[in-house]
Design a protein that fits this description.
The structure holds three protein chains of three kinds.
Chain A (H helix, E strand, L loop, with lengths): L5 E6 L11 H9 L4 E7 L5 H14 L3 E6 L2 H14 L7 E5 L1 H5 L5 H19 L8 E4 L3 E5 L3 H12 L3 E6 L13 E2 L4 E2 H14 L3 E5 L1 E9 L2 E8 L14 H5 L3 E4 L3 E7 L1 E2 L11 E2 L5 H5 L4 H5 L12 E7 L1 E4 L3 E3 L16 E3 H8 L18 E8 L15 H15 L4 E6 L9 H10 L3 E4 L4 E5 L2 E8 L4 E7 L1 E6 L1 E3 L1 H10 L26 E3 L9 H21 L1 E4 L4 E3 L9 H5 L5 E4 L4 E4 L9 H5 L5 E3 L4 H12 L3
Parallel strand pairs in A: 1-2, 1-3, 3-4, 6-7, 6-18, 7-10, 18-29, 20-27, 21-22, 21-27, 22-23
Antiparallel strand pairs in A: 5-30, 8-9, 11-12, 12-17, 13-14, 15-16, 19-28, 24-25, 25-26, 31-34, 32-33
Helix pairs in contact in A: 1-5, 2-3, 5-18, 6-7, 6-15, 11-12, 12-13
Chain B lengths: L4 H8 L12 H5 L10 H9 L10 H4 L16 H18 L13 H6 L2 H11 L3
Helix pairs in contact in B: 1-5
Chain C lengths: L1 E5 L2 H4 L3 H13 L3 E4 L21 H11 L4 E4 L2 H16 L1 H8 L11 E4 H7 L1 H7 L8 E3 L22 H8 L18 H4 L1 H16 L7 E4 L2 H9 L5 E4 H10 L2
Parallel strand pairs in C: 1-2, 1-3, 3-4, 5-6, 6-7
The chains are: A alpha/beta, B mainly alpha, C alpha/beta.
Chain lengths: ~650, ~130, ~260
């Protein structure tokens, strides 16, 4: 073997490291080690001059291993690998010692910190001498994208990817795309009508030849990795042949069964055979077998008789389709908080208490009251809005702010004021968060219109006569308020969807503490998920308004397009391999691999690692009783020498 | 009284009063707050600003520990524990200065005293006693 | 079934009717209640201060007495229920305080005692009760839960502490109409009776008002707590107020 020649670089990270760790002392100690040819310190190793320094040394001193002691490898491993590659070294001959997150940031005592830094760098040097050259492989990307969820985010992402010329499958679990935005009346802060800006996009989706729209479908199973995902899509039984259906909707008109509508909330109804709303895309009905009289009692079939094209098919079965994709965009959105979890507000007990989305429907011309603001058939004389219902509330486990309720309440209050100038409108708030572009200006406009804002969080809603009483403290006046109202609108917050949690399990996506999907980095990678090739957009990643959802959707789409344009992905060579001569074929490892990457070679009677699937998690080598499996870049010897180094005493 | 009220408070109580956002749901849910000189929410605000006047307000004596506010507080603060602690600080100060208690048992109506449940009386004593 | 039973001081004196009805109902239902040996006062209110272990002693001593014979303890008074439960909770959760409490005790509390409210025993016997009840033409029932049974959130008897439904479900299974009113868990004013009667009057007024908005004519208010019973009886005359066991007994007797 050629002589090992190591260069060690200790970073100050400004004062992040050097403020606590005595960097010069570290350099001095490490210089004494065997195989260390140069050891230097520098203010910012990751900067251009820092990287140049390493490159120059590699050439000058003929280095064949490099150790950088700085921040976490998550930050800059890729940076330094690239640097040494440019200087002609194999990038896997780099080793990093994390003396920032694991040392200077968490150790107060300077002497302790310096000692710890020395040991960390020392074991990095020991390990570096055992590193081997590894070569990355390139895998072809399947240039077809899957978008899950057809709200505004999913719609926008699909349109952008399709526009770039790539094929897109848009999978939506409901009979129509549109999501929550389709339920809204006008949108803050500009008050443009939601339907007017959404419907054209929905139609565009249905007409774009690159988009395969799959409504009333669900994701059954996902496996694979970036560039090569295998997805099984479940098509739910619709009981209506959409090829034959001409959207006359006679069936919906004649169906005798009325049930509460998911789209209208508690304020409206739909039939058992239905399209969710008038502008639905596709504009074709489905039968909900759980409420259909025929499915429940064996009699009825009215729709079948009335359909002019014989499109109804009661024998329809669910079907499955398996498709390969190169990338996935998750756009599954949010659920509205269920105010029954705050029983003090009497939602469910009093029908004059509505959620935010229900009130959007009351305001909407397509809604149950055709846009007339009425409750129990009467025009309300006073309305109370309540902020932060189910948000900023540890009692229901949602400590976060939902970000849209302040503004949608302002919007709704304003719309009421426009239509019913004499209606008394009181808003109970804790803080008004008008942080977006044009939001504060809009809030001022709403206040100027005569909407009364009182600071306080109501504790109770009860009835006196036929009036609702909202009890709160006005914390500015310091007095108790019992505000009478004909109608109360709860500013219900946004919560993660249950279905998204299931999807996250299937895909092994990480969740943030609030149970929304977790982005790869809160600042620098807000759209990537923890899985390569899976991108997040819209409210599944956290509460946000429409402009932010669309911006994220466009970001997700461009990530997909960039990936497809490149056409290949490199697979990290940090993978397991089986030393066939040691493998006894005991199968122990097989069931443990979370990525199903281990296959049994029947002829040789040994295990084999499928390099397309192995993610280098390290489970199998530690489980193999005969030590037959080796993890590249993390071999037993490489790990043992580190442990030995840590235990070493002067 | 020359005491640092916050310091005394944290000696005997670990309610996280600093996380209060002054939303006032405690005051609103309190069945007694109409009778209080300052509402629970305001009292907490006084306390975190280290105002020892909190000891002089009837609020700490009127709180009946019914926990209606605890069940609603968005920040999981239990106001009854705050009132409890402040009462004790007050009583301790008086005991230190050898002042007698303000509660005069004789003033309680006889017919109530006779009919009322035992537990009431014990509870009352507990509230006014310094241990 | 045999259970250890903790009456508490009030049930032995001013709330004697409550205890009598409990005893009679349990006899009819074949539940044998054996009074705990050497029981003490539970100390009536749970004190939250973290610097004084003596405040929890009463409750813990009773539980230690219990552990000599059984690992369950039945009680019916809301205050005793609340104090026993919370004191035990603190004893096992706060290690530092536990050590200090133990310094006062000859014996430690070794395991958690299951504290059962008498109502829970009745729930198990609902079918027998159903067959025993003679009279059902009663006005609707307003069950007043009060604060002690429902809070603090998380450890008390009722999972939904703001709008609990357990008693309502129980009585509707027995064939009665129940009233779902907003202030069923609001405080009755508690011991302010002694010092600030006007406040208790106000509290009771509000509770009654919230019942009134849900009923047309008459109704019967049921309680489980001598304190609530006292305040509700004393400061309003619109509705009759009974302990829930007292009421059940009259149904069984057909009075
Ligand atoms: C009352 C109210 C008023 C609002 N008003 C405004 C406003 O005026 N202006 C504004 O900017 N914002 C407003 N918002 C916020 C706005 O609704 C959201 O920003 C926007 O709808 C987010 O879109 P989305 O596509 O991310 O999620 P969604 O609209 O929730 O769409 C998600 C879609 O994915 C589908 N889906 C979910 N899970 C699956 C699955 N597992 N498989 C397949 N499909 C799935 C769903 O059926 C749905 O169609 C308001 C919100 C509320 C509650
Ligand atoms: S957006 Fe406003 S109303 Fe909604 S949770 Fe945040 S602060 Fe409360
Ligand atoms: S309810 Fe909680 S957060 Fe709100 S004011 Fe009271 S103590 Fe503060």
């Amino acid at each position: 073997m050629a002589e090992i020649r190591i260069g060690v670089y200790v970073c100050h990270c400004g004062t992040n490291i050097a403020g606590v760790v005595d960097v010069l002392k570290v350099v001095e100690e490490i210089k004494k080690m065997k195989n260390v040819v140069v050891c230097r310190n520098y203010l910012y190793m990751c900067s251009d001059p820092g990287q140049e320094l390493i490159k120059k040394d590699i050439r000058e001193y003929n280095l064949n291993r490099v150790v950088v002691a700085s921040c976490s490898p998550r930050m800059h491993e890729i940076t330094f690998r690239k640097a040494i590659k440019e200087a002609g070294l194999n990038p896997y001959l780099l080793e990093m010692a994390n003396i920032r997150e694991q040392d200077s940031w968490v150790t107060e005592d300077k002497e302790e910190a310096t000692k710890k830094a020395i040991s960390l760098v020392r074991i990095a040097v020991l390990r570096a001498s055992l590193l081997e050259e590894l070569y990355e492989k390139e895998v072809k990307v399947i240039k077809r994208a899957l978008v899950i969820g057809g709200g505004i985010s999913g719609i926008q992402a699909s349109l952008d990817i399709a526009e770039a010329g790539y094929e897109v499958y848009l999978v939506e679990k409901e009979p129509s795309i549109g999501g929550h935005m389709a339920q809204l009346e006008k949108t803050f802060p500009t008050l443009d009508c939601a339907a007017c800006i959404l419907t054209p996009k929905m139609v565009e989706v249905s007409q774009n030849p690159n988009i395969k729209l799959m409504t009333y479908c669900e994701i059954e199973d996902i496996s694979g990795f970036v560039g090569n995902f295998k997805v099984k899509i479940k098509k739910k039984a619709k009981y209506v042949s959409w090829e034959k259906c001409i959207s006359c909707l006679l069936c919906q008109e004649k169906c005798p069964k009325k049930v509460p509508s998911e789209f209208e909330g508690s304020v409206g109804f739909r039939k058992a055979i239905y399209i969710p709303f008038a502008q639905a895309v596709p504009n074709k009905p489905v039968i909900d077998s759980e409420s259909c009289i025929y499915f429940q009692t064996g009699r009825c079939r009215v729709c079948e008789k009335i359909c002019p094209t014989k499109a109804i098919n009661f024998d329809d079965k669910e079907e499955y389709e398996e498709v390969d994709f190169g990338a996935i965009v998750i756009a599954t959105g949010y659920d509205e908080f269920d105010p029954r979890l705050k029983p003090e507000f009497g939602y469910g007990r009093y029908k004059e208490v509505l959620t935010g989305l229900e009130f959007e429907r009351i305001l909407n011309a397509g809604g149950p009251t055709f846009g007339e603001i009425k409750i129990n058939g009467k025009v309300p004389k006073s309305i109370v809005f309540i902020h932060c219902v189910g948000s900023r509330d540890e009692m229901v486990g949602n400590p976060y702010c939902s970000r849209v309720c302040c503004m949608y309440i302002a919007k709704q209050a304003y719309l009421v004021k426009e239509r019913l100038p004499d209606c008394k409108i009181t808003v109970f708030y804790i803080d008004v968060r008008a942080f977006g572009k044009g939001f504060e200006e809009f809030y001022t406009r709403v206040k100027d219109s005569g909407v009364i804002y009182r600071r306080g969080s109501p504790s109770e809603i009860y009835k006196r006569g036929d009036k609702l009483i909202v009890r709160s403290e006005d914390t500015i006046l310091g007095e108790m308020v019992e505000e009478e109202a004909d109608l109360v609108v709860l500013g219900t917050g946004l919560v993660p969807r249950k279905e998204t949690l299931e999807l996250a399990k299937k895909l092994k996506l990480s969740l943030s503490p609030d149970n929304f999907l977790l982005e790869a980095h809160p600042k620098l990678r807000p759209i990537d998920s923890n899985i390569d090739g899976v991108y997040l957009c819209g409210c599944c990643q956290g509460p946000k308004d429409i402009p932010d959802s669309v911006a994220q959707a466009k970001g997700a789409a461009s990530s997909v397009i960039a990936l497809f344009n490149k056409g290949v992905v490199t697979v990290e060579p940090i993978q397991a391999y089986v030393r066939e001569e040691y493998c006894s074929g005991c199968h122990i490892c097989e069931g443990l691999c979370p990525y199903l990457a281990l296959e049994f070679d029947k002829e040789k009677k040994v295990m084999r690692v499928n390099t397309a699937l192995c993610r280098g998690c390290g489970v199998c080598p530690s489980a193999c009783p005969s030590g037959a499996i080796v993890m590249r870049h993390y071999t037993d010897e490489q790990i043992e020498v580190q442990i030995g180094g840590l235990l070493w005493k002067e | 009284m020359e005491i640092n009220i916050l310091e005394e408070f944290f000696n005997i109580c670990d309610e996280k009063v600093f996380s209060c956002i002054n939303c006032g749901v405690c005051s609103a849910s309190c069945p007694i707050s109409n009778f209080m000189e300052i509402t629970p929410q305001k009292l907490i605000f006084f306390l975190i600003n280290n105002k020892k006047e909190v000891l002089e307000k009837n609020t700490i004596w009127l709180c009946a520990s019914c926990l209606n506010c605890q069940a609603r507080c968005r920040k999981s603060i239990d106001f009854s524990k705050v009132a409890d602690a402040l009462r004790h600080i007050y009583l301790k100060e008086r005991a230190r200065k050898k002042l007698s208690l303000e509660l005069e048992i004789d003033k309680i109506k006889r017919e109530i005293l006779i009919k009322s449940p035992q537990q009431l009386f014990i509870a009352l004593q507990r509230k006014f006693a310094y241990y | 079934m045999k259970y250890l039973y903790y009456p508490g001081c009030t049930l032995k004196t001013t709330a004697k009717v409550f205890e009598d009805s409990i005893k009679e109902v349990s006899k009819i239902l074949d539940i044998s209640l054996v009074e705990l040996n050497n029981w003490y006062c539970c100390q009536a209110i749970y004190t939250s201060l973290n610097d004084n272990p003596s405040l929890l002693l009463g409750a813990i001593r009773n539980l230690i007495e219990t552990q000599k014979e059984d690992d369950k303890l039945v009680t019916a008074c809301s205050a005793c229920y609340n104090v026993l439960l919370r004191s035990q909770n603190t004893y096992f959760k706060d290690e530092k305080l536990r050590v200090r409490i133990n310094a006062y005790l000859e014996e430690e509390l070794k395991r958690e005692i299951k504290i059962i409210h008498f109502f829970e025993l009745l729930e198990e016997k609902i079918d027998v009760l159903n067959s025993l009840i003679k009279k059902r033409d009663y006005p609707p029932l307003a069950f007043y839960y009060g604060c002690l049974l429902t809070r603090p959130k998380g450890i008390a008897l009722f999972s939904n502490d703001i709008n609990p439904q357990r008693f309502e479900n129980f009585f509707s299974q027995l064939g009665f109409l129940t009233i779902d009113f907003a202030f069923k868990t609001r405080c009755c004013g508690s011991y302010l009776t002694y010092t600030n009667e006007e406040i208790v009057k106000d509290c009771v007024d509000k509770i009654i008002l919230s019942i009134k908005e849900r009923v047309n004519n008459s109704c019967v208010i049921l309680t489980t707590c001598p304190l609530c019973q006292f305040n509700l009886e004393n400061y309003q005359k619109d509705y009759e107020v009974f302990y829930f066991t007292q009421f059940l007994l009259s149904l069984i007797k057909g009075e």
